[in-house]
Design brief:
Length: 412
Amino acid sequence: MKHCATLFLFILIPWCGMISCEKDDPVDKEPQKIALHHKSTEIIKADQAFGFELFREAISLCDEENIMISPLSVAYALGMTYNGAAGTTLEAFNEVLHFGELTTREVNESYKDLMDQLVHLDDRVLFSMANSIWYRLGYQVLSEFKQTNEDYFDAGVEEIDFSDPETLEVINQWIENNTNGKIKDMLDYIPSDAVMYLINAIYFNAQWKYEFVKEETYEGDFRMADGSLYPADFMRVSGNFAFTTNEAFSAVELPYGDSTFSMVILLPSGEIKVSDLVAQLDESHWDSWFDNTTCTGMQIDLPKFKYGFKGLLNDPLINLGLGDAFSGQADFTRINPEGNIFISRVIHQTFIDVQEEGTEAAAATIVEMRYNSAEGGSPIFFKVDKPFLYLIKENSTGALMFMGKVGKPEYD
């Protein structure tokens, strides 16, 4: 099965706008690239559109300083659920997930293709993904639904007694095991009319290619959105990094491992707020924002941060157009021919730790189904001392692993 201060997005998004600063260094090997077939490329574009939309919806519905979500995890959990949808519910999935003219088989093959390659892409980056389906003892589930998710999502499918109090612990332990202990006690209870849980778990752990010097970490002030100052530990690194700037923001790219993955920091300019950037965060802006990227000498001061987030994604998904799946009109007859079930909750929980050595992150998504009742020159000083956005991406496709907003850089 393995294979609201920061909003952290873990998703598949093609973005190759920033250039690499490593290609002129003879000691660096060329980072490994993902070789996707044509339909897999389409699914990444679809996930890009879905991810930006989910990001905007989630952040608009939460007034917390620190938020974190993983659209990649959500996409895989919904991808398994999609295999059980029919009629207008299937149409809603196709629209919200932007599958367009892709057939069900092409969608499944694309998710499998991408998952198989992501987990083996960089020896210096630990990335794992696991999927599972748990259904009520005695509940009829079509064999085709089970087989499809086993074949394409490598999902473990288990029939289990939901009335047994130990079942809750079994499911939570599976999530904890597949997030390296970072996501705990995620499922709070099992309703008496619950029939199925479709779960995705993701774990990411990578060292920076160029580590921050721990001895140079210092305490400084981080100016929050309301103008107040918050004490934070700022890490420092100097070197040549991909950098871009425009009237809306400045951005820098920090590579991990063999440069297969990286984090992108977006710092709003002047009086522009993070919310202003989020409002513009769509495919067209994203593709054009980084046209003037250069590789240049820089000193980067970045606050350490570590936190977790847990919440329901029902409202964001309903607002995006998936309301049919959450209603009495839901059609999941490709799970059970009698139908009469709907999505009751999409529970999402995440964790991130950004410090001098690297980044550790995890995410899990539960879909609950219930019965229906540059070099040279002077260095650029880049101090991230106010709310900012960040992204972690796979560089050959631009697939975004995480994306987030930091409004309060807490670190316990």
